[in-house]
Design a protein that fits this description.
Blueprint lengths: L4 E3 L16 H7 L1 H10 L15 E5 L14 E4 L9 H12 L5 E4 L31 E3 L3 E6 L5 E7 L2 E2 L8 E2 L15 E4 L14 H9 L4 E4 L7 E5 L3 H12 L3 H16 L7 E5 L14 E4 L1
Parallel strand pairs: 2-3, 3-4, 4-5, 7-10, 8-9, 10-11, 11-13
Antiparallel strand pairs: 1-14, 2-14, 6-7, 12-13
């Protein structure tokens, strides 16, 4: 198992000037322990597995809405939800037609909070109240709604993929949402190679809006690749080692700081230097290509596993 990250972009059509980001001093002043913990955790020795003999390139996108980014080539194309902006069948079909036109042999998609038409439990106007996926033409796209599938890549390698559109409840309530107390992830089968969720796991590229139950699940059953969206301001990747340092960083992120939590981060970092053979076991990808008002379009992310 191995991971290789590449990004692709195209020229912007216009430029918006974003608000000025806090300086390093301002971040330290506001949350000194959390600021130091993030700096220290970045010093972890990077140790990635070697490329397999039969690698598979997975291209990840999410939260495209009405955007149509240029998508790089690959073996599998994954869309992690928010296929539409208005939730209608008409816009859903436009997105599906665009995805079907891509040359990737395997295409997998889940829905997201904005895709109200696909949520049978969501009440709404005439455009989405039916919630029948069969009314849309999916072509060669594999749509997963809390389901799993085994796919065979061009090189003959088989990968187990699980996909779910669900995310924790927000106000107002949107599509495919569940109560924060509900653990819907205990139904995910073991030994998935790729996990696709619309929600991020808690404390990982989520602004603390992700799901703690999902985080617990990936600690117990570690996917090679976890692709998600939802949190548009945190596009990018990170590697998980499932060790003391990762646990300490998750703890201090959840608490928003704390000196004792910072000491645990220091301890975990020291342990990581004494265990240089510990390899990354998962790569997490926040694949949001739409970054909101100040960063409209980001690049798709390609991962080799």
């Amino acid at each position: 198992m191995s991971f290789k990250i590449t990004t692709y972009s195209k020229d912007a059509k216009f430029i918006l000037i974003p608000p000025k980001k806090p300086s390093a001093w301002q971040q330290f002043r506001d949350q000194p322990c959390l600021f130091l913990a993030r700096k220290l955790s970045a010093w972890r020795p990077t140790n990635l597995p070697k490329l397999p003999e039969n690698p598979v390139t997975v291209v990840c996108i999410s939260n495209t809405y009405h955007q149509r980014p240029e998508i790089p080539p690959g073996d599998i194309l994954i869309h992690a939800g928010d296929l539409t902006s208005d939730g209608s069948l008409a816009e859903l079909q436009i997105t599906l037609n665009w995805l079907q036109a891509q040359p990737h042999p395997i295409k997998v998609a889940v829905a997201g909070r904005a895709d109200r038409y696909l949520d049978k439990m969501k009440k709404g106007g005439r455009r989405w109240r039916h919630g029948h996926r069969e009314r849309a033409y999916w072509g060669d796209i594999i749509y997963l709604e809390h389901q799993h599938v085994t796919v065979t890549a061009r090189n003959g390698r088989q990968l187990r993929i699980y996909g779910s559109p669900y995310s924790p409840m927000t106000v107002p309530s949107l599509a495919f949402q569940y109560s924060h107390s509900d653990n819907i992830w205990d139904r995910v089968p073991d030994n998935m190679d790729i996990l696709i969720t619309h929600t991020p796991p808690y404390t990982h590229r989520d602004s603390l809006r992700g799901c703690p139950h999902l985080l617990n699940h990936i600690w117990m059953d570690r996917p090679r690749l976890h692709v998600f969206g939802c949190s548009r301001e945190h596009h990018g990747c990170e590697f998980l080692y499932y060790d003391a340092l990762q646990a300490a960083v998750e703890r201090i992120e959840a608490a928003g700081g704390g000196f004792s939590n910072l000491l645990m981060v220091v301890k975990g970092l020291v342990q990581s230097f004494f265990r240089p053979d510990t390899k990354a076991k998962s790569v997490l990808v926040n694949a949001c290509t739409n970054g909101g008002l100040w960063d409209l379009e980001r690049e798709p992310i390609s991962v080799v596993i």
